[in-house]
Amino acid sequence: MDDKLTQFGQDVWWLVLAKVLLVFVFLVLMTLFAIWYERRVVARMQVRPGPNRVGPAGLLQSLADGLKLAFKEDIMPKMADKAVFFIAPVISTTCAFTAFAVIPFGPTVSVFGEKTPIQLTDVPVAVLLVLACSSMGIYGIVLGGWASGSTYPLLGGLRSSAQMISYEVAMGLSIVAVFMTAGTMSTSQIVDAQKDTQTLTLGGFDLTVPGWYAFLLIPSFLIYAIAAVGETNRAPFDLPEAESELVGGFHTEYSSLKFALFFLAEYINMVTVSGLATTLFLGGWRAPWPISLWDGANQGWWPLLWFTIKVLLLLFVFVWLRGTLPRLRYDQFMRFGWKVLIPLSLLWILTLAGIRVVQGSDLTVQARLAVVGGPILVALAIWMFWPDKRKAIEDPGVHGVDAAGRIGGTEGFPVPPLNLEVPVSPRAQRVLGERETVSTSKES
Amino acid sequence: MTTDIAAETLKLPSLDYAALAPMLILFGVGCVGVLVEAIAPKKARFPVQLVLAVLGIAASLTAIVLAAGTEKVTAAGAVAVDGPGLFLQGSIAVLGLVALLLISERSLERGGAFVAQAAVTANSEADRDQATRGSGATEVYPLIIFSLGGMMLFAAANDLLTMFVALEVFSLPLYLLCAMARRRRLLSQEAALKYFLLGAFASAFFLFGIALVYGYAGRVDFAGIHAAVLDSPNDIALLYIGLAMVAIGLLFKAALAPFHVWTPDVYQGAPTPVTALMAACTKVAAFGGLLRVLYVAFERSQWDYRPVLGAIAVLTMLVGAVLAVTQTDIKRLLAYSSIANAGYVLVGVLAISKAGLASSLFYLVAYGFSVLAAFGIVTLVRDADGEATHLSRWAGLGRRSPLYATLFTFLLLAFAGIPLTSGFTAKFGVFAAAIEADQTWLVIAGVITSAIIAFPYLRVVVMMWLSEPGESTPAVSLPGALTAAAVTIGAAATLLLGIVPQPLLDMTENAAHFVR
Amino acid sequence: MTTADLLLVALGAVAVGAGVLVVSTRHIVRAGLWLVVNLLAVAGCYLVLAAELVAWVQVLLYVGAVVVLLLFAVMLTRAPIGASDDLDRPRWPGALIGGGAGLGLAALFVSGYRWSRVDLPSPGTATALGEQIFTAWVLPFEVVGVLLLAALIGAIVVSRPDIGSR
């Protein structure tokens, strides 16, 4: 298995330098482009033009902004922990750049007579490296928030650490399915594993699907996509920098280049999770179906283009989400992560492992269906017939309003009581629940 | 796909499920208990959990009885199923069952001995409120079951890593349970924190010791270590210091001086039923581990560790006996008594012989029953603020409730080692084994300290019977069926093992052979 | 001395230095940061010893999650910027004991192994590790699962103020 990885780590020094430069330039360009792209797309969604002054179609707008940012005054808050304040954005950016080292851009090409893959390096546990880098990136945000010596950034930092740790768990679990199917954690081999089309036999029909894990492992892909948005602190999960609640979140006190570094890190992280999604689920640099009929599609430098297009499409989804969805409330968001995403991932991994065990065994088709479908049916039956704990709601006699004073069932809107009596607050109800002597009629 | 190839080459080691069943049943029941917490309605949880736990332990005990006579190493060498292992597992199950009865008592205090919300600030209004009214946490049942399962694995572990994992499995729930006493919350929280920190420290020693022993022997399984002792080309200092550190971890759990300092505070602060569990079951498990390490892995370096551990035994007996004299709290008194008793067991262990092994096993069981009954009675002597543990409050108890005072007197006499109690048989056994193995100095120290520690016991007896009951002498609560059963079983076992010890002696004699 | 030896020594020095700073610094958050440095250095040692999976898992879990949670807890309760005087204790007894124990163990290892050569085992790949865990250590591994479950339940029981109230 490891012999395929021997092509890495053999490059001559200038080739390594060139690759580092390629990754760096790619990421910076992608960042500059993504900022423009995001502003234009959001603008289009909101029926306005967006930046269109600097350069053709406003393409140079982000470059201009970046330059302007560099010349702004660098403010160091008085209460800040100087060293940590300085080092936090550096950590963020470094980790963001490092993670991209193992993302494969393309197949082996020939550069000035040297044969080399278009990928900085690969290791047997490459995906873990990406995850490790993104988890280290949390430090930048947490420390930035703390070192500012001010309340909003601290709250932003805390939120972000809780959020990123929670969603990293879901993200890691979603990737496990890919490891199980591909049998490797190295990025280049995962791309290789998605090369072949799969033939599924469903009730006598042969279906040919691409080997992309986005199709084979749909639940994993969905969970990954959601977790990725949470992991990158993007809308609708951008609670660490929720401007309506926390001013600017963890980077409120940052200015000038340090702020630019945070900004850079955020966009690079977006590119990284998109790149990782491309690699893990969308066939990596391999050309999508109609193009792949052309023999030359997966050779030479072409794959770089397919890869970039796939990443840009994913970035579009990021922007689309931001343009469409309102921000979640913090507790809803955490509950969603821990009580929905993580259990679902675990369940899916369990199911997948079961399916693979059944596949490996020499059972008949009927027996396989029974083994796979049986537990699902039992689970469904339990879920259907589980006694509903919610008490039946008494009809208060007013059309459409239930006993809890809500319209539209327990999930509906609360409405004021019709006799204008002031209800006891839920908290007081809990405290006084046992005494049961509280009368609210005096207050009315 | 590549994993298929891997799946074919991966061969599970042979697992003898019948031999592993005692532990697996308990772990399974613990997991079911967690599910019960999640699913069952609040009112039903307590009875369901209680029945589940009792059935689980009973099933586990059945599995142990069925496995009796097995001698094998299974699960890729991780677990040794042999006479001492099964005997210790059986004692843990039986003692755990009796302790479970104490733990489940809910008639003495509304909601039982455990608090529902351990995080409420101690002495706050909410805290006082929940002390008198709130129902108790039922999560304690899965925790106790996990703990018992860990103890069983600990007594049967056949390599140091499995032993470490088992050590953590049985310790962690105990740390938590200590923090959940219904009354005297601060004391309880302090006890838990102290136990946790010192326990983590001891675990670290244990782990480092494993690393050093591995550095010497290149193996962590006991057979491998046994083969490597004296034969390995590596520096012998690695072995000595490694063994010392492993021993520190074990001595800490068994509460032997100078690693005993946590014992009085933790025994005092923890809910009394949990104290009983710790004094009975943890001691059995800890000595089970110690026996296996000393007898199976390091038997060939016995001439090196014997004097050191002998000194520790003497020190333990002395510390336990002398400090017991100065105690004014009944739980602390029993804690020091348990320290001293650990010293006596160590005397038996250090005989490094079949007789030593058999007598240690007997001692552990005999002491376990007595201490369970003793702490069971402590839970009964109470006033409006909970248990009255100060010794002065016990003055004149003999007049108020002669039955329980008699029982407690009997148990104290058993601790002191008076004939016709199990304490005498047990002490006689370990001392005889030690003399047989030419460890007379340990026996001399043992006899002297026995005389010293009889004094505090007798002082309590005198106080209960010869003082007039004062204003503050609390009444003894009428025990519920569960506590009554536990106390009866404990006291009856103490009596029976004193009068007709032969069946159990035969059992230990037959069991006393380790498989390597 | 090969490059690997040099790297190992350098990383070890970093780990020890960072470890000393963890206990000696008076800035509580910085103590956490030095802990990060220490853990990273140890991960580096694993990498040099060809235990790739362990190294990255160490970074992912200890650096990326455990210490972040530590810092999280510190910041939730109190995280003063600047030195905290109450972290300043008479250090000499502790330093003596810690330093003495460290030096003693170092001496033990030096005397135990001196210049004996130990060949590196085969690299700690995921496959090798998985095979070990699921063959030789399968029972302890599964029991660790039980341990974590117990810890989880225990943490909830001890810390949640809103469960099981009535």
UniProtKB/TrEMBL annotation, chain A:
GO terms for biological process: aerobic respiration. InterPro entries: NADH_UbQ_OxRdtase_su1/FPO (IPR001694), NADH_UbQ_OxRdtase_su1_CS (IPR018086). It holds the Pfam family NADHdh. It is found in: Cell membrane; Membrane. Its main location: membrane. The chain crosses the membrane at residues 12-37, 83-105, 125-148, 169-191, 211-230, 259-281, 301-321, 333-355, 367-386. Keywords: Cell membrane, Membrane, NAD, Quinone, Translocase, Transmembrane, Transmembrane helix, Ubiquinone. Its EC number is 7.1.1.-. GO terms for molecular function: NADH dehydrogenase activity; oxidoreductase activity, acting on NAD(P)H, quinone or similar compound as acceptor; quinone binding. Belongs to the complex I subunit 1 family. NDH-1 shuttles electrons from NADH, via FMN and iron-sulfur (Fe-S) centers, to quinones in the respiratory chain. The immediate electron acceptor for the enzyme in this species is believed to be ubiquinone. Couples the redox reaction to proton translocation (for every two electrons transferred, four hydrogen ions are translocated across the cytoplasmic membrane), and thus conserves the redox energy in a proton gradient. This subunit may bind ubiquinone. NDH-1 is composed of 14 different subunits. Subunits NuoA, H, J, K, L, M, N constitute the membrane sector of the complex. This is NADH-quinone oxidoreductase subunit H. The lineage of its organism: Bacteria, Bacillati, Actinomycetota, Actinomycetes, Micromonosporales.
TrEMBL record, chain B:
One of its GO terms (biological process) is ATP synthesis coupled electron transport. It is an enzyme of class 7 (translocase). It is a multi-pass membrane protein. Keywords: Cell membrane, Membrane, NAD, Quinone, Translocase, Transmembrane, Transmembrane helix, Transport. GO terms for molecular function: NADH dehydrogenase (quinone) (non-electrogenic) activity; NADH dehydrogenase (ubiquinone) activity; quinone binding. One of its GO terms (cellular component) is endomembrane system. The chain crosses the membrane at residues 17-36, 48-66, 86-103, 140-157, 193-217, 237-262, 274-295, 307-326, 333-355, 361-381, 402-421, 441-466, 478-500. It is found in: Cell membrane; Endomembrane system; Membrane. It catalyses: a quinone + NADH + 5 H(+)(in) = a quinol + NAD(+) + 4 H(+)(out). Residues 157-452 form the NADH:quinone oxidoreductase/Mrp antiporter transmembrane domain. Its EC number is 7.1.1.-. Belongs to the complex I subunit 2 family. NDH-1 is composed of 14 different subunits. Subunits NuoA, H, J, K, L, M, N constitute the membrane sector of the complex. NDH-1 shuttles electrons from NADH, via FMN and iron-sulfur (Fe-S) centers, to quinones in the respiratory chain. The immediate electron acceptor for the enzyme in this species is believed to be a menaquinone. Couples the redox reaction to proton translocation (for every two electrons transferred, four hydrogen ions are translocated across the cytoplasmic membrane), and thus conserves the redox energy in a proton gradient. This is NADH-quinone oxidoreductase subunit N. It comes from Virgisporangium aliadipatigenens. The gene is nuoN_2.
TrEMBL record, chain C:
InterPro entries: NADH_UbQ/plastoQ_OxRdtase_su6 (IPR001457), Nuo/plastoQ_OxRdtase_6_NuoJ (IPR042106). Keywords: Cell membrane, Membrane, NAD, Quinone, Transmembrane, Transmembrane helix. The chain crosses the membrane at residues 6-24, 31-49, 55-74, 95-113, 133-158. The keyword Repeat does not apply. It is a multi-pass membrane protein. One of its GO terms (molecular function) is NADH dehydrogenase (ubiquinone) activity. One of its GO terms (cellular component) is plasma membrane. Its EC number is 7.1.1.-. Belongs to the complex I subunit 6 family. NDH-1 shuttles electrons from NADH, via FMN and iron-sulfur (Fe-S) centers, to quinones in the respiratory chain. Couples the redox reaction to proton translocation (for every two electrons transferred, four hydrogen ions are translocated across the cytoplasmic membrane), and thus conserves the redox energy in a proton gradient. This is NADH-quinone oxidoreductase subunit J. It comes from Virgisporangium aliadipatigenens.
